[in-house]
Write a structure and sequence with these properties.
Layout lengths: L3 H20 L2 H23 L6 H27 L5 H24 L8 H20 L6
Helix pairs in contact: 1-3, 1-4, 3-4, 3-5, 4-5
Amino acid sequence: MKKHIPLTILIILTILFIWGHSVLPATTSASESSWVMELVRPFLEVFTGSGNVTAHLVRTLAHATEYFVLGCEAALWCRWKLKGRKRIVKFLILLAFGLAVAFVDESIQFFSPGRSMEFLDMMIDLSGVTVAGLVFLTIPEKKC
């Protein structure tokens, strides 16, 4: 089996995970964010100080983290499937892919009860993919 096939399946599952959370109504999403906030509060308070962890911070970090993971997966896929192409071309393809997934993600939220389409969330999502792409750009191709 070619090594890119399991990775392609993992990318699809990651996208479905992200989009699956976008379908949730606002109340369910808020409840889930509260649960995660209580889980990560002790860790985040090391960096933010006691009492400074908010649901907004947790949601923002969740967006960036989900898309960083997706960006790592997609960057690796680009390395394997686009051999011979220049790094900048791979990076631009990665950014376009990340932006497309983020746009669909926010579009889904537009139709979810109590949710809205947020440009800032798309930029946070894209930043996660961008950081992943930059990490992969700095790793020599022969090491992957």
